[in-house]
What does this fold into?
Amino acid sequence: METMMAIMALAEQAGQDGETETAEALRIALHNIAVVASNRIEAAQTEQLPKIEPKAAWAIRLRRHIALQKPEILDEAIAEAQGDTEIVNLLDLFKNEDIEKVNQTVERLIPQLQSVGRNEEAATAYLIYLNFRVALAEMYIQFPIEQQRQAREAGIQACQEAAQIAESLDDAALRAFYLVVLAGGFYSSRQLREAEYFYLSALKIQRELAESEPHIFNQYVATTLNNLGAAQSNQRKLKEAERSYAEALEIRRKLAKSEPHIFNQDVAGTLNNLGNAQRGQRKLKEAERSYAEALETYRELAKSEPHIFNQYVATTLNNLGNAQSDQRKLKEAERSYTKALKIRRKLAKSEPHIFNQDVAGTLNNLGYLFLEKDVGRAKKEFADAKNKVEELMREAIGIDDKISVMQGLINVYEGLLACHIKERDWDKTLEMAEFGKSRSLSELLKFKSEELQPKAPTPDTREIVEKLGRQYSDASKNLTVLENERKEKTQRLNQLNEDERQALNEIDARIKTLKAERKRIVKEIQDNYDPDFPPAAAPIKADEIKRIAEEQKRNIVLFRVLRETTALVFVFPDKNLHFEEIPKFGRRELIELYIDKWLIPYLEYEKALHEFSVAKKLCDESSTEKNLKNYRDKYDQYSASDEQWKKTMNDTLTELDKKLIFKVREVLQNKNANPDVLFVPSQSLALLPLHAACREENNEVRYLLEDYNITYCPSVSVFQRCCKNKPETGKDATLGIITPSPDIFGFEKGQIELLNNFNKDFTKLSKEEATIENVVNELTKDYGFVHLYCHGIYGRENPFDSGLEMYDNKLLKLSEILNQDLKENQLTVLSACETGVADAFSPTDEHLSLPVGFIFAGSPSIWGSLWSVRADATSDLMNFAYQNLKEADYKEKKSEALRQAQIIMATTGNYRHPYYWAGFQHFGV
It folds into this structure.
């Protein structure tokens, strides 16, 4: 969405210009955005319910049971309720988890209790009703993928409501419990800032409780500290995470002195976490000590329960090997890895679906260990790891499984790439650099196969193709159901009885039949109608990549970030290859550059902006002295944050040039290369505006895009698809999908004027016209240019949930975009926020974003954005870019049209800072 400052500025300007309707629409937008943001972060501070005095013994015990999750306390609550048949019945139903009857009983019982003034008991009965929904905040992942978001939101809402009721009952332990579950829900959905906030809120309450009842609540304090450390660690707040883990460890060690059989496992787990936080800060000796102590504890536990603790012994040995390897203690690291591998191979014999990935991970670590002294041995270890992961990939079902397995594949590909570099085999280096990225994208596309549909080559074949598509979807959905059922049974293979084993054999037979049926359907579709179904990003050979560079007269630069270095593979139009390796810029340095120096400061800036916007809303509603002071304080904080973020952006873009892009400049200049360059970035390099990397020349800032016309693609095979997508005779008809969301009503005037000036053959869908149905219907027509001015949303849990927000509050999802047929399209402009964004914390190297969806739908060129762009600056940028597109030279070179517009912005006017223009990238040809 547009930044709130832009909305406020436009609202004030509209008011001054006498455009009262526009001004009011903008103020409503600001209010709505503030309310949504406030509800998320500050849900625990919403309006309090009236206080209710606790007095019913059964209700007090029942709430204690929920807060501490102890079954014996529920039995005590049932005993306390004896004599009240209705309450005992409700508690028995709750104990037996009979959700349907609990709901019916609560619905009937609450009015009865309230009518006789038993409000505490009515509130507690309602908590029983909510309790099953509260669990959805963390357990939503067990639902089918299309239901997960709804389930998670229901769970979060239930947590918030239950926490309010607990507060009204003055039940601190219960409120802390719901805040912890709420935090866990946000953590599991990768909303880490929210998770940290609610863990801290719960921790404050638990600390107070532990002062009076340390024997009960100290363990909960330790658990919350451990979880808080995980949320902090995943945000790269490693110092804070280390403090949280250290405090949790101190408490757990004290608990373990009196009850080692209960708490020693927790001690070892926290030691492992502490070691990870220390290693992340390069405190390698401290990390090694933490892992060694954890290892000693796990080994002791494994003596009596090897079936439980051997896997933890292996994990800790692997971690210890990592810390030793980082310190160049190669012999010690080899011993640790070898011991871990021996245990993991043994575990994988009985449960390969669980432990083969661990086997592959340790093989991969050994491969890197041998890389410097024995490339042949390293290749063998990497090849063994690759075979294990490939086998797992064939068995993976859900997106979590696939992403987890793909992490293993990427590490393996990086290792094999490093071997080819050591052998100076540049063709193999090029092929491996491309292979890993194409493979990852293909696997992601396969995951949502039941939603992918073939495209009819002619109108008269549409009916039969749609029928085949439905058959394919049905087979895919049924296959997913069966594979999930099979996965559940195989995870408890040792506990299955004879009947269940027979059922598993029947499932295997049905899976085999369904796979054969789906294969037959796909063959019929590919042979007769759509050869590109399902869409894939097939890896291509070195000679083909060279041919693409020659035909497109374009330099290709593949970035591959490895463990300790970054490999740059250049392919020139004369078919020559050039290789460079950037030392001291590996995975760790990239994480520090992108997350620590770019993303976290940007999120802090957005937080300051949000807090200022909320303060302004409160001040507008009531100009009390308190609200005015809060407004001034928040404005000062925002102003300082705004200046700091812009300085941080400049510093990071300068550092990016100094550490990495300088070598790209140097090679291209030495080659006297033409200015057209394709970047194939790796990992979170894909989320940085590489074209805006800058350095100082003659006391002026010079950006990379001033010298080179940069385009992006996630892989060369995707770029090849863009080349094939390019229509032979481009049509000029333009479709504009503009302001479908109510909070950006009022911005359509400038967008419509922009598109009208560009092309009179212009079709507009704005406001209530821009429904999902209308937009999908319009996209079936042949438009040369598609312009979308709307909110872009990235699905961090599932990239296929990414989409563009339409009028009816529904998303035009990535999976639906993939099914469109944009065969006459020349350019798709995603003039919205975060339309080119992917998950910075994703372990996979391939980022499946909205531009990729439009490429697979048939578009050869896409403009997308990397952050929440300013409405006013974007309007100027698009005006310049569309003016360029009207000229013949730029129509053939869409990237140059955007580039020249960005150069104008960077060198003239009020929007020179890269924040205003560098967010837009050109994808494709």
